[in-house]
Amino acid sequence: MRRPFLVVVVFGIALTLSAQYQDRFKITWIEPGSGAILPELDAFDSVEGTLGVVNASGPVNTEGHPFFTPLGTNGRACVNCHQPTYGMSVSVEGLLERWRLTDGKDPVFAEFDGSNCPGLPQDQQSSHSLLLKRGLFRIPLPWPPRNADGSPKPVEFTIEVVRDPTGCNTSREYGLKSADPTISVYRRPRPAANLKYVTSGGQPIVLKTGTLADVDPETGKPVGMNLMSDAREPSLKTQALSAIMGHEEARVTPSREQLEKIVEYESQVYVAQAAHIFGGPLAVPGGPAGLGPIALRDHRAGILGDNDYDPVFGQFNSWKGNDYYHASVARGADIFMFRQFWLRDAAHINSIGLGNPLKRTCATCHNAQMTGQDLSAGWVDVGTTNYPTWTEPSTWADSSELPVFKITCVRDADPHPYLGRVIYTTDPGRALISGRCIDVGSIVMQQLRGLAARAPYFANGSAKTLREVVDFYDRRFDMKLSDQEKEDLINFLGVL
Amino acid sequence: MRFGLFIVGAIVALAQQRNFVSCPIVRDTKTVPCFLAEYDGETYFLGIQQDITNDFHPPQLKHEVLVEGAVAQGPRVCGGIPLKPVSISVLKEVNLACNTLLPAEPGIEAPPAPRGAGPSSRSSKAGAAPRSPLSGRQEFTVLYAFNDDYLEFGANQVVTEAVAYAKRIGASNVKVTGYRATTILSNGERLIEKAGLGEKRAQNIATLLRGLGVSGVAVEWRNEAERGDGQTDPSRRRVTILVTP
Q1: How far, in Å, CA of B89 to CA of B147, rounded?
Q2: Is B35 a domain residue?
Q3: Could you read off the pLDDT of A216-249 as tens digits, one per residue?
Q4: Which of A121, A421, B9, B222 is 20 to 30 Å apart from A251, CA to CA?
Q5: How far apart are CA A166 and CA A160, in angstroms?
């Protein structure tokens, strides 16, 4: 990281941290197979200050550990895209640094999905532009979607490629009309941390659809369906297997022991912002109880926030009246939890019996304590991918980098509740798995922890900063946030 | 004489019934928004924003709504004549003309809302009175909105209860029957649910029951839409689950 000034500032702050974080500050990209001991309590530079990482089971030896060891053919391991430094995801800043240091040879840039499309000249940055500008990996998905036994699922819409900047969706080899019809969408890797929260909340019937929830194939129990942006994998183990066979291009199925060791490691990692360059250590006695990774380690998962007595991220009242920064964070917490606006036209929120519009707050959807995910299966069309609210330019722009698909729903299917039967989208989201028209553009919301360490944001990496995230919601829901309110919200999100 | 009284009663009930399709109107208040609809020159109050555990599920802008309700006694609420009980069916097709959102006005207040704006672990629905344990042959009825097979929260709970009961008694037979129905509007028009909906509803419920571990599930459905009477039509949009020990 070439951020000498910031590094100096952050290092100075790091030295003032509570004892548990002292002497832990460093900047580290873990290379697969490099072998190291990861401490129980770790801390890393981030744009806003210091990210704290807790290995709840104690120090982790990465030597030979399947999370840190390539199991496939392209040199990648899980850690390539889930780096502790970047909140167990990966940031654009980190990816650009890896490109510079390795001249694009790092396995994170693997041709299969670390480039815009296989077949492009791999030595050129432009062939990896979505990864280097937005942190997006290619996710090739079969069309039509398939059942677990490989049979095609019934689908409620046709899909056409309208615009294909990467060339992958119209490719004869990799595209929709190839021998193995495939849709390529481009998505951010989700943080492989705080997972007891992410995997909690499994109910037999999905509230949003009235259909059976997916079940863990090993236990037969229903799962929360909040793990992936399209909920396509039911468990950490199936996700790990899929990632190894796909992202790592393995030819041999990993062993049960390897998968279990990966899940065991992921399940005990907690990440959260630990200190802020202006605010100092965040998890301090008398402060908000939900901050810092240790709070995540110790809190119970699967709890619905209640604004009246037990909010989503705890009480911030003790910071009101403090210095400017702490008071701003406390105001931001209040905005997140209490500032009402008209929440409208969001499929799988307004359309599930709550009414449209709904006078509620950010915390209505981001309701699970400690992570701000949805406690029920959380796919929602908040408008990031579907025209006209999508995050891309609303009028023609040569700079648009994402593919655009035209979805046409069949007459006897339920239409998308707010866009009808013809939808233009950069990512159909859950619909690529369910085949349902009502799911077009619905993306599973993700946790809000460790945000400062892992820009850019949204599943499509369109928001370079937290300011751009807040701006999107302000526009989308006509929140009419003042500049002060935006700053407060950004400061609040930055301490999570 | 009794028959005559019955006829008079039915006429009075029908006179109090309001079945119509229109665009909903959302009115802000100091607290939660009210949901209204206009019919035949009059404004009716349908309900307020609550949460999904409540029996009243508000309509949606961008969609017409089928309202089936009875005029309730008492003053106007939120500027509208209250309908209670009231059944709300959001019609599926998008209608961009349905887009009326009114600001709050002094003097127009929503009834007390049991919960605030953020998430709440407390349901807005009062706790149900404890019931004595079920026994013997039991029929569970899953109700639907018009032309819909979506399982709303309350219907979801009915299925969950049926599953628990069937498992508890080790049911020998579980018969699922799906129906579609007719609604008679106040202007005399008939709305008939789409063909095949009875089968779809029944198959969906059977899939849920089997997936939740109930064995011996038999499925049937009625192809013909049930006739309406303009008063109890919502009760015929249903699936019945007959659980036999």
Answers
A1: 8
A2: yes
A3: 999 999 999 999 999 999 999 999 999 999 999 9
A4: A121
A5: 15
Q: Is residue B85 a part of any domain in this protein?
A: yes
> Could B61 and A356 be called an inter-chain contact, meaning their C-beta atoms sit closer than 8 Å?
yes
> A430 to chain B nearest CA, in Å?
18
- Quick one: CA torsion of A81, A85, A86, A89, rounded to 10 degrees? 30
Q: Tell me, yes or no, whether B156 and B220 share the same domain.
A: yes
Q: Which residues of B touch A347 (CB under 8 A)?
A: none
Residue range of the domain that includes B27: 14-102
**Could you say which residues of chain A have pLDDT below 50?**
1-25
Interface of B with A in 95-124 (CB under 8 A): 101, 116-122
Evaluate whether A372 touches A378 at the Cβ level (below 8 Å).
Answer: no
The answer as to whether B6 is a domain residue is no
- Indicate the residue of A356, A415, A416 with minimum beta-carbon distance to B60: A356
Residue A158 sits at φ, ψ, to 5 deg, of -100, 160
- Asked if residues A387 and A425 have their Cβ atoms less than 8 Å apart, the reply is yes
Structural domains counted in chain B: 2
State the Cα–Cα distance between residues A379 and A294, nearest whole angstrom.
28
A360:B117 CB<8 A = yes
List the single residue in A312, A416, A417 with the smallest CB-CB distance to B119.
A312
Among A207, A356, A367, whose Cβ lies nearest the Cβ of B62? A356
Under an 8 A CB cutoff, do A415 and B93 touch?
A: yes
Q: Which of B35, B152, B211 sits opposite A355 (nearest CB)?
A: B35
Question: The CATH number of the domain where B85 resides is what?
Answer: 2.40.50
N-to-C CA span, chain A: 22
AA identity, residue A372: G
Asked if B61 and A351 count as a contact pair (C-beta separation under 8 A), the reply is: no
B121–A306 CB contact, under 8 Å: yes
Question: Over its length of 245 residues, how does chain B's per-residue pLDDT go in tens digits?
Answer: 455 545 555 555 667 999 999 999 999 999 999 999 999 999 999 999 998 888 899 999 999 999 999 999 999 999 999 999 999 999 999 999 999 999 999 999 999 887 665 566 665 555 556 677 888 999 999 999 999 999 999 999 999 999 999 999 999 999 999 999 999 999 999 999 999 999 999 999 999 999 999 999 999 999 999 999 999 999 999 999 999 99
Give the residue from chain A lying closest to B24, CA to CA. A356
Query: Which residue is closest to B115 within chain A, CA to CA?
Result: A308
